[in-house]
Design a protein that fits this description.
Two copies of one chain form a homodimer. Chain A is an alpha/beta fold and 424 residues long. Chain A has two domains: 222 residues, 3-Layer(aba) Sandwich (Carbamate kinase), CATH 3.40.1160; 163 residues, VC0802-like, CATH 3.30.2130.10. In chain A, 35% of the residues lie in helices and 25% in strands. In chain A, strand 19 and strand 20 form a beta hairpin.
Amino acid sequence: MALIVHKYGGTSMGSTERIRNVALRVAKWVRAGHQLVVVPSAMSGETNRLLGLARELAPTPTSAAAERELDAIAATGEQVSVGLLALALQAQGLDAVSYAGWQVPIATDSAFTKARIERIDDTRVRADLAAGKVVIITGFQGIDGQGNVTTLGRGGSDTSAVAVAAAMKADECLIYTDVDGVDTTDPRIVPEARRLASISFEEMLEMASLGSKVLQIRSVEFAGKYRVPLRVLSSFTPWDIAIDEEARSGTLITFEEDEKMEQAVVSGIAFNRDEAKITVMGVPDRPGIAYQILGPVADANIDIDMIIQNVSHDGKTDFSFTVHRNDYAKTLDLLKSKVAPATNAAQVLGDPKICKVSIVGIGMRSHVGVASKMFRTLSEEGINIQMISTSEIKTSVVIDEKYMELAVRALHKAFELEQPVPAA
Amino acid sequence: MALIVHKYGGTSMGSTERIRNVALRVAKWVRAGHQLVVVPSAMSGETNRLLGLARELAPTPTSAAAERELDAIAATGEQVSVGLLALALQAQGLDAVSYAGWQVPIATDSAFTKARIERIDDTRVRADLAAGKVVIITGFQGIDGQGNVTTLGRGGSDTSAVAVAAAMKADECLIYTDVDGVDTTDPRIVPEARRLASISFEEMLEMASLGSKVLQIRSVEFAGKYRVPLRVLSSFTPWDIAIDEEARSGTLITFEEDEKMEQAVVSGIAFNRDEAKITVMGVPDRPGIAYQILGPVADANIDIDMIIQNVSHDGKTDFSFTVHRNDYAKTLDLLKSKVAPATNAAQVLGDPKICKVSIVGIGMRSHVGVASKMFRTLSEEGINIQMISTSEIKTSVVIDEKYMELAVRALHKAFELEQPVPAA
């Protein structure tokens, strides 16, 4: 008997018919002898509907008091879905009980709309499991020290599921999604993209932060911190497939490097067209200049991703960095009006039509020449590289966004990601 | 400065536009110097939508475990509306905070779907009011001793509002509805029906239990028990009418008989076509026979309303009683299969096509001949009376349902209810 946490996304919970399917799948796991904790999202569209109503009354809610109300409103979406799933399980003849985050309780800080889980008291849940019940817990939410409902932000249900699995030392946390698992890249761009049977935690973290939408990045961080065995799998397989087959499907996120895992140099290609590039040209190359340029940007709560400083010529240098495309206009305005005059910059240039393409692979640690193979591949396709950034297990380049699909396909082929990796 | 509780029904909360109107009205009261606690219902249609989803998964939820889930699901409707109203008030520049029943807390017993309020801790609410905030509390729900969400049953938001007003010793509880107040009878049947400026608590209780849908009967009982000054008024007056005018509008429910109140003999005509009549004929007239007949009905959890026992002839008597029309088939079956054989009854007859018409008035206590005037009026219209039941302040008759409108109109005219009562 194992303790298993299942997480189901909004699409899987999108109608009573689909909720019934989730119940049948959960019942199969229970009848195979496992203890089950289930963390469902709100029915698809529900969170948007609720926040849409709120926005009609408060178009720009910025105060903590308003954010508190937004959280209380948004949290009801999951409160409905846990109740419905409990009823569906009871209709299958199982004992099932649902809890809202505040009932568990899942304690968070008070950062409304983006709260962080501080601790989970699993006493009540354990007692229910011991009594033979399936326990269903709302994703996305918790309760702060003052008894206010908080939410974890978009995609927070993944984090809730992993946090529950960590707190309870679950044997595995299965994340059911509308994809098959983690692919070498997006199959809508590269039809030959292949599902990875496993991926290392570090690679998954890079893939998530580089734009792969399969798992919310905070849930991956959580899984890494507490070593929660995590598997991403499809909620669209028939609910009655053999449990062994289901347990081995999808993509396993692994922590032990000496586990038998795929030893590819590069595991996947991530991409992201949500960024924009800004270049400050001709600033004096002196100590403190980076802070003079980027400090005001950070002070304006704008996240900076890649940063490049060119070698200097004649005591002058150029700075380039990328921000989220939503922050582009604001950043450009800030630099032109405040930073350029203060730093005697010659010019501020911006380009929102860029994209970032990254190769990710734990094998890069021990293989040389991976980055240069990437640059050669892009060069052979006539694609100009505007910025480069590297870490131990990834190399990212910024290119013109019109070349994005071409670059992803060429790299996928160059690193032979369409080929299954031979077992180690 | 007074402490005022406002309660708004689902129609008043039916859209963001209407919620904004509620906020404007509440803001007007706050700016007039009052402390406000607001108890809104769920947006109209929402509770039905939620319970409809539940019914798709659990068509006949009867276990306590299922009812617990139904309550958790249904309670979210009000949790959304309090949050939206708080945002709307904040947009008016007021400090506002919303609480779900469990946050106040409003403590109830564990009778899911029909819980009763046991006590309300107003510490948190009082602190907020003292800090200048408008406090918004979910209607319809509370929390039991085990931390489960409970609901009070349909119309429970009226009860929540009155209970909050009682616990906080509010100066007045204003129930905003989609009617103008309490009328002498339903204006859809008698166009001359007149709004009552005031009505005694006992009369209101009879009106509510006899079918007038203006207030939920439990809320009236609660108001009576704790002497909560209660006023029913329209949420469809323009929000910006003068506050004095608004405070005097609608119908005041009074407790002091020596208050200057309308001294009509009869205050209103109530009616109800939700009942059905059952007659057990030719049973032996001996001690214990009433229990032998009605005991099994009560044991089957069927509520009995009126009961009549005829004078006996030749040691035999007839029993007639009424039940809710939904229980008619079940009751008839029970009597024919179990009770009749056990009591040697000659026959069991049923008639679902009946209605109950009642005259209600505290003045009946001190006026003779009121009932006989009722019977004469019906007789002049050729309406046969099938059953009669009386209390100190009401007389009810059961008649063929096809005469209901005729009876109500004739009685309304006979007791001159269309005429304003001269001030006492």
